[in-house]
Amino acid sequence: MVTISTWHQSRIWMRVFTLSVVLVASGAAFAQDLPSGEELMDKSSVASGGDVVADDIENFTVRGKMTVQNMGMSGSIAMYMAKPNRAYMVFELPGLEKLQRGWNGDVGWETSIMQGPRLLGGSELASFLRDVDFEAQLDWRRMYKSATCTGEQDVDGKACYVVDLVTQTGDEMTMMIDQETYLPAGMKMTTETQYGEITADILFKEYKSFRGMVMPVITETSAAGQTMVLTIDSVKMNEELDESLFAMPKEIQALVEAQGSEKTP
What we know:
Elements: H1 4-33, H2 37-47, H3 50-56, E1 59-68, E2 73-82, E3 86-93, E4 97-103, E5 108-111, E6 118-119, H4 122-132, E7 144-155, E8 158-167, E9 172-178, E10 184-193, E11 196-210, E12 213-223, E13 226-237, H5 250-263
Antiparallel strand pairs: 1-2, 1-13, 2-3, 3-4, 4-5, 5-6, 7-8, 8-9, 9-10, 10-11, 11-12, 12-13
């Protein structure tokens, strides 16, 4: 014979079980309601002005300053990018450093006062090419082979979707896309450098449109205990660029020739 107390206990456990089922189902429904990573990346491409890049822009030049907050130092930075796949960047820290990087379509290189000349390769070169390929705003699939939305996260006061990305070279990173504007609000990535792997947390702030191309004016990067802030002062498009900007320096050419001779049997 079932007692009253046992009957009540059975009812209570049944309610707990039912509530658990509802919560699990609700969680599954929430997960299913997340947009796909591909959809979010497509919307982000449109929001960034991908069509403008494809139709109207042949090259552009970005100038600004880079500040290393923890060290109280700042210098100038300039980046030149031209279709289809050429790039040159120079960062100057007065009295201390002049760092140059380039890509002529075949060779990635770097020269600096502290490290001298060297060739870029592997994940380090792939990361540099992602940074300077402005056509990737039109077709993100050129850079990434998969995009998966894994949840939501607040970034710098903005509600964002979290999208896990895998690059064509197999590197993994996470992008946070603003739910309102569909512009990237932040990114987390690990980059290969000559000093080893470095994990960076990046915030993109104060987006502005430059002839329809939407870019963050401020990029804040925290890595290896340092915080670096890139502030864009000007963006110019379709200028007459000196072709020598994309030429390899003599010391880099020497490295390329030496590397070629080493491969020759």
